[in-house]
Amino acid sequence: MAKCDALVVGAGILGLSTAYHIKRENPDAKVIVVEKRAAAGQGNTAKSAAMFRSFFYSTTNLTLADSSVEFYRFLQEKGKVNLNIKWTGYLWLFSKDHYRKVEPVLKELSRRGLNYTYYEEEELSRKLKMETHVSSNDEAKAMGLKDVFAGIFIPKAGNIDVNALLNFYEKEFLRMGGEIYYNTEVKKLIVEPEKPFGVPGEPYFWQKSRISGASTTKGDVKAEKTILAAGAWIPNLLDPLGIECCIKPKKRQLFSVKAKTRELKELLNVKGFNELQCMPFTILPEPSVYIKPAANENAFWISYGDDFPRAYLLEEEPQPEENFYRYGIYQVLVKYFPQFEGQNPSSAMAGLYSINTLDGQPVIFEKHGLIVVGGASGSGIMKADAIGRIASALYKGDEYAELYGNNRFRVSDLGLEKRRVENEKLII
Amino acid sequence: MAKCDALVVGAGILGLSTAYHIKRENPDAKVIVVEKRAAAGQGNTAKSAAMFRSFFYSTTNLTLADSSVEFYRFLQEKGKVNLNIKWTGYLWLFSKDHYRKVEPVLKELSRRGLNYTYYEEEELSRKLKMETHVSSNDEAKAMGLKDVFAGIFIPKAGNIDVNALLNFYEKEFLRMGGEIYYNTEVKKLIVEPEKPFGVPGEPYFWQKSRISGASTTKGDVKAEKTILAAGAWIPNLLDPLGIECCIKPKKRQLFSVKAKTRELKELLNVKGFNELQCMPFTILPEPSVYIKPAANENAFWISYGDDFPRAYLLEEEPQPEENFYRYGIYQVLVKYFPQFEGQNPSSAMAGLYSINTLDGQPVIFEKHGLIVVGGASGSGIMKADAIGRIASALYKGDEYAELYGNNRFRVSDLGLEKRRVENEKLII
């Protein structure tokens, strides 16, 4: 595996989508993926809630997510692969103040043709048997929790089986002749002068130089183009070369609570929101604790993406924190959903978001012969297909990528130099 | 020193300028500076070439540098303090291609009233006894070095005695009643909830919280406002709290070559550029190796700010690299100035630039009760006074800072959220 046209570092969802699209569009190219773990998606891809929504204010976000979701739907409906897509929908709950702020944004989205249903507080309270008037509770009030004023239900949203998606990209990539080397960790990227002078320690600054591959635990791999799709590990491979990527890792935790009681089973299987007749993915008023239904596990996955003072920190095996559930999430959750009173998680996991600290949207750029693909900030799975296509267009040197559904996307819009992304106004 | 109004972390040039201006504008405030080293400016401030220029395309850069330089001139001319300002000027040498690019920029600056003198290649060759036609040398050609086509001399530029400047700020700060604690290292910033609930591990995300001081090797210091001016160490103190500052450290090296030979003495004391009758600070064509004259040491300080693949790396005691001079700087230098043939450095030093990776201009913002002041990217000394005044305005909550010379400067222009800086087109 010493030489190739394209070397993709990382077999997470972004690495595999990128490798698949590069190979699909360049069938004769020798494309190699190296991955330090033993199988695909075993890093932070495995720690995702794997939710998706096709409902964003930012056209950048909407285009990336919608075209990816439509591709996943196509795969599933054409019977190519069962991605086990569950259209649970998103139920987004707002305080009065917050709703007043997002109302014009929602109206604008409605004008653009995006669907949602408005729910009044009374109906939410009745259907979900939830406590909407949390301010009557002294502790909730002291905690600064706000009453639910309204909710919106977003139908084009749900979750996906990320392993099935990984398998699709992996299998098709291999079928086309791509190669994947697992248990192969990149120690560093290789920099070489275009014209070697044979002086010790070259390249020097007066030489043109480029990234020409990677040193791995199984030896060096030289490549015409190296594609770094290593998620949270990206800055650790770029800092030694002085390349800024604006990506930092931050821990995210998910706690699974079993629906042991009658009340919780009723909540999990609440009728009337979606065709599945289950609870939608539900986002509480700010702070936006969220609840993912997992009917097949008879459980809820509950989380909160904390910002300050949560560290930017790279950990190989980040651990969930019992106290984060007990004193953090649970204290908020139980005020709105008394059904969770006394319930503890039966399991928990933690992963790292690769946060683009500029604007929270993905980063795809080329520098010194290296293509960097990352920073999806927790939306990597729902945008993976579009991101892979854009990275592949950059690999080919195209100005535009053709996304699924004939959406053209200007590649440089996700770069750092000519970055042009619309800010998101609907952030969970 | 357990409690204060303003705690400034770092007694480098930016920390002391900030502390001085905060104390000057808030004489009743208890202002404390903590510094891990034994005296002022012993970190990377000490490793600077201490050059300044009042010649930038970006009005942001020009305003910050010019108002600071004018303040330094005022200090010196009013006899308040001898800053040993040397108006050596900058002599900037360009290849033909590069000159064609900067020509419109220079004309624009000329229209704005900034002075410079144009030098033709022949005159440079004659005056400096330099080799302008380097392309006649095979090695230089292979290295990609370009002939000197023209040069410009910028008179409002030179160097300053940074220790004298540090002493001024320190002495005046102490005279007004400020306190400095040396040998006092900040281990971490303290985060506290506004309303403590007494639960383990608080604050949690549902609590409002803020940075309320710092834990130091000499104990905790609580402050109404904490001001982080720790240069290259800023990201290391912010990452654990998940705050992005867009600052990364990068090593810079300076090599001192004695003017031992008659030719080098002649070059060092070249007539006709400035009143000092010495060599100006000289910037070679790209790659822009630069030469600082140090007539009092009978030496030149020579440097180059390498970008790729120089690591972003925090080191307590960065070391100069012999090979960086031998195979890097020297190889370029000697092609243009054969006077340096065979000359080795008699001493060398290395420090860290605190690079703002967004645009190379300073960063001054407040988040969670913390004010961050840094990222001057190698221009910290020449902009220190303005930066201190802007940080002080932010401390007071003012929208505008009043710079020396009655320049108003919008504080949020250097922040991260409403950042508004003009890009620089004259980068060394």
Return the CATH architecture of the largest domain in chain A: 3-Layer(bba) Sandwich
Assembly form of the protein: homodimer
Number of helices of chain A: 10
Question: What is the CATH fold-level name of the largest domain in chain A?
Answer: FAD/NAD(P)-binding domain
Mean pLDDT of chain A, as a whole number? 97
Write the layout of secondary structure elements.
The structure is a homodimer of 428-residue chains.
Chain A: E1 3-9, H1 13-25, E2 31-34, E3 51-53, H2 59-77, E4 90-94, H3 96-111, E5 117-120, H4 121-128, H5 138-142, E6 150-154, E7 157-159, H6 162-175, E8 179-181, E9 186-193, E10 209-216, E11 219-228, H7 234-238, E12 247-258, H8 262-268, E13 281-283, E14 290-294, E15 299-303, H9 322-336, E16 347-356, E17 363-367, E18 370-374, H10 380-396, E19 400-403, E20 407-410
Parallel strand pairs in A: 1-2, 1-11, 2-8, 4-13, 11-18
Antiparallel strand pairs in A: 3-7, 4-6, 5-6, 9-10, 10-11, 12-15, 12-16, 13-14, 14-15, 17-18, 19-20
Helix pairs in contact in A: 1-6, 1-10, 2-10
Q: What would you say this structure looks like, in words?
A:
Two copies of one chain form a homodimer. In chain A, helix 1 packs parallel to helix 6 (162-175). Chain A has helices at 13-25, 59-77, 96-111, 121-128, 138-142, 162-175, 234-238, 262-268, 322-336, 380-396; strands spanning 3-9, 31-34, 51-53, 90-94, 117-120, 150-154, 157-159, 179-181, 186-193, 209-216, 219-228, 247-258, 281-283, 290-294, 299-303, 347-356, 363-367, 370-374, 400-403, 407-410. The model of chain A has no long low-confidence stretch (mean pLDDT 97). The first copy, chain A, folds into two domains: 3-55 and 163-246 and 358-414, FAD/NAD(P)-binding domain, CATH 3.50.50.60; 90-154 and 249-355, D-Amino Acid Oxidase, subunit A, domain 2 (D-Amino Acid Oxidase, Chain A, domain 2, 2-Layer Sandwich). Chain A has 428 residues and is an alpha+beta fold. In chain A, the strands form four sheets. In chain A, strands 1, 2, 8, 9, 10, 11, 17 and 18 form an eight-stranded mixed β-sheet that branches. Chain A starts with a strand and ends in an 18-residue tail after the last strand. Chain A is elongated, with a radius of gyration of 23 Å. Chains A and B meet through helix 9 of A and helix 9 of B.
